[in-house]
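tool_log.txt
---
The assistant was asked to compare two proteins side by side. It first ran the structure predictor on the initial sequence, then on the second. Raw inputs and outputs are pasted verbatim so the downstream comparison step can read them without reformatting.
(1)
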Amino acid sequence: MSPEVATEAAPVPAARPRARVGQEKRRRERRKQVLLWAAVAAIMLFCLFPFYWLINTSLKTGQGLSSAEIVPPHPSLDNYQSIFEDSNFTTALRNSIIVSAITTVLALTIGSFAGYALARLRFRGKFIMLAIILSITTFPPIAIAAPLFKFWTDLGIYDTLLGLVPPFLAFTLPLTVYVLASFFKEIPKDLSEAALVDGATHFQAFRKVVMPLAAPGLVTAGLLSFIWAWNEFLLAITLTSSPSARPVPPALAFFTGSQKFEVPLGTITAATVVVTVPLVALVLIFQKRIVAGLTAGAVKG
């Protein structure tokens, strides 16, 4: 073999280690992906298993309620049928829908104006005002439950649906204002100013230009308000005493079994599934808008 041929063939063996390094790198990346998806699957299983066990228990009856079987041997919808035949539960479900809907609409209406003012107007003490508004969300409801009970009794709105709206609104409105203020800051001022130049009033520019662009923020704030009002237990059980005005969370605490000392586990789990499914459906339907609303104001690279 000539020296020229030997010189040209020398680099060929060096290409094999490079190929091996590339293969090992790809294997490491695959292992990382497998471990990542395994961790995601484990977290999802950990989070979803309690809800599955809730559904599993709601499909059991009789002696099956005390068993720990992963799959119910004889699934039945008797528990669901019994709760919808109970007028107290259907009334509580109606009350929760009414109170949560009114609270959400008022929170979005008032919060949109307040959030827009905090985002666009310049005035002294704006940061302090926003801090005070947000501090209300850290206030424990138990601190105002007893005073509200006395005050509501004196006003004559105790044990009414109307009496549940103001305290619910007091705790949902601060978060609504904060979310909408963060989202309004991301909308360029030039759009509303262009509408003003075209002859629109400030309210028309807000309603026809700014509000449609703020739809993700409105959906996020509205859904958070609705979920809080739907799940509230302490204020609801403190300010109501009869099934005619009681929402779902406190109504579940008054479920009774067929016997005096029987725990109605099947009907409670069935009712819990019924009141949880709408919230899960809303989150899945508006998932993209919720993510857009929660990430408003984040630093973008």
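(2)
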Amino acid sequence: MIKYLLSILSVSILLFNGETNLIKSEPAPTREIQYNINPFLKLDFRQLRDTIFTMKDNFIEVNLSTQQATMYSRDGSIYNFPVSSGNKHIEKGMETREGLYVIQYKSKNQPSVQFDNTMMLNWMGFNGGIGFHALLGNSYYKYLGKKNVSHGCIRISREDAKFIYDKIGKGTPVLVHKGSSMVKIGFGKSGEVYKYYSFSELSKIIPGRYNEIYNSRYFSILNDKLLIDEENVWHSGLPIGNAELIPSIQNLKPSFLWIDKTKSEEEKLAEIISGKEKSDFTLNPFLDSRNNKF
């Protein structure tokens, strides 16, 4: 009987000590979460542009408002040159049309059928009968970079025409605008994934992408990288949208609200634009877009 009572007492002591130890045990240390509110919430997105890519080594941008143009090269070099574009108020004249084009045709000496076989030097056509070219004589030089006096083409100096002619090839993108283009050109890289569509498909897809930006949904859509060349951009060109319609705020998915503080600003932007949702990107599980449907 005594042994039985001692056994019960021993078990009770063990249980009591176990409870005591359980109550006194220290909580497991927690890892401090490092996060910041995404700085992109504070940005003014009116400078946002859609990017279309080229595998060519150059592209040209023409600003009709300033009568200035720039050739950008893959090696990082930039070549600025003055122009004189079309004027619809002169006889047989027409305004040079805005749009995204590519060089379709080149000729060292191209006679103008419409204007008494006037010789156009270093002709680089991109919009039907519209293109870059120089002329004999210097009388038009005084208007370059100052006034649009051509019949529709983009006149440039003989020196600039030769330099550019020797640098660019068929398929080189030409972006013509008045300062409010929704699109910009980027250089494609080998190893990257791009979407290649026909001209008719691009004519529908690109305006749809602009509408997503107009409606503040740029970061909520799959941002495919579109590739253009001489095969999928016709003479009529592609639309360039109106940047003045871009709102200052773009909607961000909940997973973009909280970001890793250790990432650089470039890495944060790359993560957002790529649309990827990595485990170390969202540090607040209640704001993780993987738990939500859009």
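---
observation on (2): Helices lie at 2-24, 158-167, 199-214, 265-274. The chain has two domains: 35-46+246-291, 49-245.
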